[in-house]
Design a protein that fits this description.
The structure is a single chain. The protein is of the alpha/beta class and about 230 residues long. It has a single domain (about 30-230), classed as 2-Layer Sandwich (Nucleotidyltransferase, domain 5), CATH 3.30.420.10. It has seven helices and seven strands. The chain has helices spanning about 1-5, 20-30, 40-50, 90-105, 125-130, 150-160, 170-185, and strands spanning about 50-60, 65-75, 80-85, 115, 135-140, 210-220, 225-230. The strands form two sheets. A five-stranded mixed sheet has the order 3-2-1-4-5, sandwiched between helices. It has a two-stranded antiparallel sheet with strand order 6-7. Helix 4 (about 90-105) packs parallel to helix 5 (about 125-130). The chain is globular.
């Protein structure tokens, strides 16, 4: 039942593969900096400015399929919900890209690369929108979801924490719950890659006394947030 309602992807066998351009860049950084470990090289990649785009799909209670377009900033793991639609045409995808860059404003200059898979919904027009801002498009190998692992992990997290536990009625409903979840993820949910901080929130200073903690419920109690209160 869970697999049917959430349209879970099957795990594919095979080792981890990386886009050739990205692989060459990693090898270059390793060769030029032999004393640096993989975590330092990972940090350099984050500093260069990577964004990762992907799709996933959800079936509603009436078995209407909805597709979600999102983007993740590699350095901070900040998630951007670009749009939800039942008809992910090339024109729609390109328009979401334009709207995103408009909202991003001057921050677009911080990013030099966009990583995406070879989904046919990502058309040449979509790539051209980001290329017009000076970004280079890196496409992952065919049938290699691990090459886009950051996006795959976020989809898995969203399914486990939210979508596997809720029946979606329509596009407006899915947009509303994902908007709330993305805000929770960006501003509150701890991330191991960020040393338990959230993408847009630093950890508060440690307190020697017993703190008073307040709980805030989201999405009809599916998600709990905790914060210190005076």
């Amino acid at each position: 039942m869970k697999q049917r309602w959430t349209h879970s992807r099957r795990h594919r066998s095979g080792g981890r593969r990386t886009a050739p351009e990205l692989r060459r860049l990693v090898l270059r950084l390793a060769a030029e900096n032999p004393s640096r470990g993989y975590r330092r090289i990972h940090g350099e990649l984050a500093g260069i400015g990577y964004q990762i785009a992907d799709f996933f799909c959800i079936d509603t209670v009436l078995l209407h399929r909805l597709c979600v377009l999102f983007l993740i900033e590699h350095a901070t793991r900040r998630v951007h919900l670009l749009g939800v639609t039942a008809h992910p045409s090339g024109a729609w995808v390109a328009q979401q890209a334009r709207s995103f860059l408009t909202d991003l404003g001057d921050r677009a200059a911080e990013f030099r690369f966009l990583v995406r898979d070879r989904d046919s919904k990502f058309t040449g027009v979509f790539d051209a929108v980001f290329a017009s801002e000076g970004m280079r498009i890196l496409r992952t190998p065919v049938q290699a979801p691990r090459a886009n692992a950051i996006a795959e992990r976020w989809v898995g997290t969203a399914r486990r924490e939210l979508l596997d536990r809720m029946l979606i009625t329509n596009r407006r409903h899915l947009t509303a719950v994902l908007t709330q979840y993305v805000a929770h993820f960006n501003h509150h949910r701890p991330r191991r890659a960020l040393h338990q901080a959230a993408p847009l929130r630093s950890l508060p200073p440690a307190t020697p006394s017993q703190p008073h903690v307040r709980r805030r419920d989201l999405l009809d109690g599916l998600i709990h947030e905790y914060a210190q209160v005076a």
